[in-house]
Amino acid sequence: MEFTGDGPRTSALRTTKMISLPKVTPGIEVFLEEHIDSVKSKRVGLITNPSGINSNGQSTQSLFVNTPGIDLVALYGPEHGVRGDVQAGVSVAYERYPELDIPVHSLYEQPKKKHASPMDVDESMRSFDTVDEGKIVTPSMIENIDVLVFDIQDVGTRIYTYIATMAYAMQACAEHSKQFIVLDRPNPINGIDMEGPILEYPEFSSFVGLYPIPVRHGMTVGELALFFNANFLVRRTNLTVIPMKGWERTMWFDETGLPWSSPSPNMPSLDTAIVYPGQVFLEGTNVSEGRGTEKPFEFCGAPWIDETRLVTTLNGLELDGVNFRRIRFTPQFSKYSGQVCKGVYIHITNRACFSPFTTSLFIIRSIMDSHPEHFLFHADYFDKIMGIATVREGLEDHQDIPGIIERISSGLDAFLSLRKPYLIY
Known about the structure:
13 helices, 11 strands, 425 residues, globular, disordered N terminus, alpha/beta, seven-stranded mixed beta sheet, Aspartate Aminotransferase, domain 1, 2 domains, Rossmann fold
């Protein structure tokens, strides 16, 4: 990886600071302190991964194992697995947890003929992530439990498969009279800001976007569970959400005092989560979104991009809260694995006014304009993760970005009212 120059400098710095932080108590701690009686004498299943931890970094599964009164009898692995070490698009296998001798059911298992390696994750995601095959909680998975607990850190963006896994699990519990508990966690990119189109439902419903919510939704997983249960599930589940204590909607994750544990292999930091609501759409193009590098989604590029021209164009737009630096990087897997990619590093200067969705549309437009002979959309997948087709159509028709944003943002006010009854904080 090589930095090849800076864009225009700014006196603003990243807003992550060493300050006295408010303390947030995550749902797992509130549950163990106040609600453990709700699962006594019951067989418990747990959907989790390495992001399921308490404020001291102890995993939820180990806390369950070592807490008298909790009978943990099964684990459930979402995309990336219970250990969080499986790359995107790669099948998660059924196994038995050796330390506990309990089953680990896969909620992301592709048929054997479709198993993917980390080298072809992009094709696998486009072909597998939009269907429910291998992701539904089957009756045999929950026949030996009484209650299913969900404890995973979400990232505040619709295109992140854990909330679909949660919804499928809720539906299965409703159909088989099982209790469902969500241990709530912060929205890491705050609970106020919303961006992007409302998914057109049911036309664009898929595993990477089940229900009509915006790209950046400003809700916690607990709030989403309440919203899904009331509005979209065929049968309502016996749902309990264990709220956090101390969390406020204006908070970013680094203001909670909680440790960051990567919820997926390509979500290593809060900075990644901040750019993700826009950069995720590069998955639907032939531009690398930086998978296979130390800065996924903050880096983007391709071997055929003129990085000097691109960084000059983007910095010339003077977008709020961001500037761009020329960069060269070599992905270790995913698109252009082993090839030198030329592009930009997204440097956030003020996250309060930075719009990841708008910024990424300008990145895509700039690459389209400067390299029309190389750039292409994977149209079906791009539209699935966008939740509508009109954004891609507008970009291809050379419509101006502000006009596209204005047209797709019209539903945000209505969604703000729709979500209000389900907000906990």
